[in-house]
Write a structure and sequence with these properties.
It comes from Fagus sylvatica. GO terms for molecular function: RNA-directed DNA polymerase activity. This is Reverse transcriptase domain-containing protein. It is a single chain. The chain is an alpha+beta fold. It folds into four domains: 248 residues, no CATH class; 39 residues; 62 residues; 216 residues, no CATH class. Helices cover 50% and strands 10% of the residues. It is built from 26 helices and 17 strands. Strands 3-7-8-4-9 form a five-stranded mixed sheet. A three-stranded antiparallel sheet has the order 10-11-12. The longest helix has 45 residues.
Length: 703
């Protein structure tokens, strides 16, 4: 691996945080990007400083002091150091991304939470036992950093590059804390290097456990279904191991015995505590039955269930409703077809009348007679086709035959002898045609055949479903509804009785900003839990609790009633911009209803949006530049950061008073004032960007 110094300038010129709207980064002209960066610092000079080992890492760090006396300080990088950190991340990604294993998720492109959940739902079969490795809350110290640097040196022979990483850890601007609840959530205390460094540190563990999986697969080969049928009537379930790791969350699944799972767990704990020198919470790292117990992973609950639980058969009521719908659909299609035929006939008659009128005036009666015969032939053919289509339905044939054969007195001999022979022969010919087209025997046989086919199909499906329920187990993913309801109550969306209530802290915001804040929380919940089996329960929380809490907040602000607020904003919470155009930020009821598991993404949890409130300030001092990365706009507005844990005076580390598994933004940012332009405050409200995407070190002190 070549040294970082020769390519530092080119890397730094290409490096930037995630592009945002109305930003110089979106310009196709790279020169405009370079100009935007150069207004803040000189890229070429920064490259020379790196090559000559003169770059001052400590000088680019800003210490954020918390408001509490017992609080911990937070060291954040300024924009210049963030560019260097992003350049280092790009180098590590180029070197290591293809070397990471397929079950290593997090901090990688296209390998997010939903991809991991999709793998669990589609690939894991017949799980018997599983356990989740839980680490004690511990920050990386010198031992871990030195071991990490040794791992990196195996692929990158660059002492200067390794030295920069060590200096970043020494300055505490880059830190890794396993067992916490802030990784992959967009919190400012998480460095851009944390995710890939965790993957590098645990890559050796991944390779060892992958070798164990391969050995177990060789010991238990997979047979084809035809071979099993020829061998015996017994079902064969090979012993398999499945592993999924998202950053510091590790889930191990086996389809074998509990003893096998215990041996695997003991080996994993020995490797993590011995070779990697990590502290594992042995009480929480317990083996659970996949069938009788659920397990928490990635903020969701997993459990092994039969396939019929995930895809239940239709009930009799649903089948009747479906049949009714299909009948109505056929009737509507027939009505449309008849309407088209009727309109076509009317149009043809109009055209023919016009043609006859012109022919009478030109060619005379003979040609007119030929045209009339041709038209009669066309209409006869058309009438035959209509009759054949009409007689195509079996049920209609049965009904017509019943009507035509009712009161069949001409079949009696003493009646036939008294009638003219021509009439009797005409009747016999007519009866032959009726029997030919409307025979009840043929119709009855066809209907009985169709009924038998439907019964056999239902029996076949039932047998297949029963066998699958007895021989297969799948992974069901559920959203933790109780934790979601606890978070809704703690944030102030509902009262003690679980009914929506207003949040008075947001009354100081504009109407549009209030709706955007609620929309950001609601959309993050929907995006995060859209892959869950009980996603409908999350939809109810967003559609009812959040929507009406927003309506009540708007009503409280304008001192009106709930009905008046609904009449003004509607239930979809529509607002008008300066030009009078209606805009909808909160997901509509129809949009929520149509949502589902449709995309593979890495959605951020709701923690950052739920625990953060930005209150607009009335400040008349000269405006500052927007602190979003590389944004040059000066028409900014000051917003004060209000954190949920400080408003409630709650310590997030105490699970009894906080929501289990929910992270929190570092307390040092509480009550800091951030100048932001209209576009970036909109993106921050709606969850398109996080506090990681802005330069929090450029805050302004406003009393």
């Amino acid at each position: 691996m070549s040294s970082l110094c020769p390519m530092s300038s080119s890397l730094l010129a290409k490096t930037s945080p995630t592009p945002q709207p109305n930003n110089a980064l979106n310009s196709p002209d790279s020169q405009s990007l370079l100009d935007s960066v150069s207004r803040r610092f000189d890229i070429e000079e920064m490259g020379r400083e790196l090559c000559e080992d003169r770059f001052d890492v400590e000088g680019c760090c800003v210490t954020m002091v918390p408001s509490r006396k017992k609080g911990e300080n937070l060291v954040l990088p300024n924009l210049k150091l963030k560019v260097l950190i992003e350049a280092i991340r790009m180098v590590l990604e180029i070197v290591y991304d293809e070397r990471f294993l397929t079950f290593s998720y997090g901090g990688r492109v296209g390998m997010g939470r939903h991809t991991a959940i999709r793998y669990l739902k589609n690939s894991v079969e017949n799980p018997s036992w599983w356990f989740s490795v839980t680490f004690d809350r511990e920050k990386f110290d010198d031992r871990h950093v030195n071991k990490l640097c040794l791992f990196i040196e195996e692929k990158i022979k660059d002492g200067f590059f390794i030295g920069i990483i060590k200096r970043l850890f020494e300055c505490e601007v880059v830190g890794i804390e396993l067992g916490g609840c802030y990784l992959g959530r967009g919190f400012p205390q998480e460095s851009g290097l944390s995710s890939i460094l965790i993957n590098i540190y645990l890559n050796g563990f991944d390779k060892e456990i992958q070798d164990m999986r391969l050995r177990k697969s060789q010991e238990n080969p997979k047979f084809e279904s035809e071979e099993l049928v020829s061998m015996s009537r017994m079902f064969y379930k090979p012993v398999k191991m499945f592993v999924v790791r998202y950053l510091d969350e590790i889930l191990v699944i086996t389809s074998g015995s509990k003893m096998l799972t215990m041996d695997l767990k003991n080996w994993a704990l020995k490797y993590l505590e011995g070779s990697l020198e990590l502290k594992v919470d042995k009480m929480k790292t317990a083996i659970h039955s996949a069938v009788s117990e659920n397990i928490s992973f990635l903020g969701m609950e997993l459990q092994a269930v039969p396939p019929s639980v995930l895809h239940p058969p239709m009930t009799e009521k649903a089948m009747r409703a479906r049949k009714k719908y299909l009948r109505q659909k056929e009737v509507r299609a027939l009505e449309l077809k008849n309407a088209r035929e009727r309109n076509r006939k009317k149009l043809g008659m109009k055209i023919l009348q016009h043609v006859f009128k012109k022919l009478k005036q030109s060619d005379g009666f003979k040609f007119e007679f030929q045209i009339e015969n041709k038209v009669r032939e066309i209409f006869t053919t058309w009438a035959d086709e209509v009759v054949q289509n009409f007689l195509g339905s079996l049920e209609e044939r049965w009904e017509w035959h019943r009507k035509l054969t009712a009161g069949d007195f001409l079949s009696l001999r003493h009646i036939r002898d008294q009638l003219p022979q021509e009439l009797v022969e005409a009747y016999d010919k007519f009866q032959e045609q009726v029997d030919k087209y409307l025979s009840p025997v043929q119709a009855r046989k066809a209907l009985e055949k169709e009924e038998r086919r439907m019964e056999e199909e239902e029996e076949r499906k039932y047998a297949k479903r029963t066998v699958e329920d007895l021989t297969r187990l799948c992974v069901k993913v559920d959203a933790p509804i109780e934790l979601v309801r606890k978070a809704v109550k703690m944030a102030g969306f509902t009262n003690s009785m679980g009914r929506p209530r207003p949040i008075k802290l947001l009354i100081a915001l504009e109407d549009t900003d209030i709706i955007k804040w609620y929309a950001g929380v609601g959309r993050r919940w929907l995006d995060f839990f859209c892959c869950c089996h009980n996603f409908k329960m999350v939809k109810i929380v967003v559609t009812y609790h959040l929507r009406f809490s927003c309506i009540l907040t708007l009503a409280e602000k304008h001192e009106s009633t709930k009905l008046e607020a609904i009449k003004h904003y509607t239930k979809d919470l529509k607002v008008s911009d300066l030009n009078g155009n209606e805009e909808v930020y909160f997901p509509t009821e129809r949009e929520v209803k149509m949502m589902g598991d449709q995309n593979l993404s890495d959605p951020r949890p709701v923690d950052g949006a739920l625990s953060l409130a930005l209150i607009r300030l009335a400040y008349d001092e000269p405006s500052y530049s927007c602190i979003a990365h590389f944004c040059d706009r000066m028409d900014t507005v000051f917003y004060r950061v209000r954190l949920l844990q400080n408003r409630l005076n709650v310590n997030p580390s105490v699970e009894e008073k906080w929501v289990s598994g929910m992270g929190a933004i570092h307390e040092s940012l509480n009550r800091k004032c951030l100048p932001l332009c209209s576009d970036h405050i909109n993106d921050l409200y709606t969850g398109k960007i996080t506090l990681q995407d802005i330069d929090c070190t450029s805050f302004v002190d406003v009393d």
